[in-house]
Amino acid sequence: MITNLEQLYFDQLRDLYSAESQLIAALPDLTNSVSDPNLRKSFQKHIGETRNHRARLQDIFCRHGLNPGGEECEAVRGLIREARKHVVRTRGGSLRDAVLIAATNRIEHYEIAGYGTARSFAECLGYTDDADILGTTLEEESDADEAFTRLATGGIFSRGLNEMAATA
Q: Which of 13, 48, 52, 98 has a CA between 20 and 30 Å from the CA of residue 21?
């Protein structure tokens, strides 16, 4: 049972740690389904960033003498499951790339909400170092979301939709 803000804060961080761990496991497989070289580079870059995000969370837990384990992020588990389902059901090429971007944006939005909330809790608790670290990660998650959106609106979505319409 969570009875105070500090417990809630660390519960939220454990959720984010689980989410990042699940993404580290899933992103390489999803990256292998990408056809666009620029999108592939973005996915590969994001794998490295995700590892850094998890390491930062681990550092926060270490500084507080706590273990990051024990929480399972069901939301990201579901989002990854949805992404894999749609990848399998979608023809390759730019249409599948559009599916991957849509799935990645959903995950990024979840992470942005999670890191923003955790940073606010850290600020309320007076954990200014934690808040700074979480703010850095929040900025990187927002940048990743914007980068994937730029790739999508720069042509991948329209190419994917046009491929689909051409075969209908």
A: 98
Rg, C-alpha atoms of the chain: 17
What are the angstrom distances between the C-alpha of 94 and each of 21, 47, 68, 91, 160? 28, 21, 38, 9, 5
Closest CA to 101 of 43, 17, 20: 43
In the block, residue with structure tokens 């699940």: 22
Taking only the tens place, the pLDDT of each residue in 98-121 is 899 999 999 999 999 999 999 999
Whole-number Å distance between alpha carbons of 109 and 79: 11
Ramachandran region of residue 53, left (φ > 0), alpha (ψ -120 to 50) or beta? alpha
What count of other Cβ atoms lies within 10 Å of the Cβ of residue 142?
16
What pTM did the predictor assign?
0.90
Place 154 in a pLDDT band, splitting at 50, 70 and 90.
confident
Domains of the chain and any CATH numbers: 5-166 (1.20.1260.10)
